């Protein structure tokens, strides 16, 4: 048997709203045109920066994009604050390339 949904439609909508409200936009979201809706979570630990999200283009179906870097490019912030670093720029570049291919993703 197939398992049922993990959450109700209202619960799913509420979770998406939380992810859409993400204020740290220095990686995946930075690779998208201004105003593009993205529900995402990002973060870093020493040597690792990651971002995962669902992008909702106006002109194509939604798509998921996940990028994880394991590199010394991820500087992080000394006080726990996320800062833009080379790893952020790399993730933004990957996000931008996926955006450019958004019409070809469903195939």
Question: What this model shows, in words?
Answer:
This protein is α+β, with helices and mostly antiparallel strands. The chain has a single domain, classed as Beta-lactamase, CATH 3.40.710. The chain is 25% helix and 24% strand. The protein is built from two helices and three strands; from the N terminus they run H-E-E-E-H. The chain has helices spanning 9-20, 86-100; strands at residues 37-45, 48-56, 63-70. The chain has a three-stranded antiparallel sheet with strand order 1-2-3. The protein starts with 8 loop residues before the first helix and ends in a 7-residue tail after the last helix. The mean pLDDT is 86.
Quick structural summary:
By secondary structure, this protein is an alpha+beta fold. The protein is built from 2 helices and 3 strands, in the order αβββα.
Count of DSSP helices? Answer: 2
CATH level-two architecture: 3-Layer(aba) Sandwich
Distance between the termini: 28 Å
CATH class: Alpha Beta
The percent of residues in helical segments reads: 25-40%
How many discrete structural domains?
Answer: 1
CATH topology: Beta-lactamase
Rg from alpha-carbon coordinates: 15 Å
CATH superfamily, please? DD-peptidase/beta-lactamase superfamily
Topology:
Elements: H1 9-20, E1 37-45, E2 48-56, E3 63-70, H2 86-100
Antiparallel strand pairs: 1-2, 2-3
Keywords, please?
107 residues; alpha+beta; 3-stranded antiparallel sheet; Beta-lactamase; globular
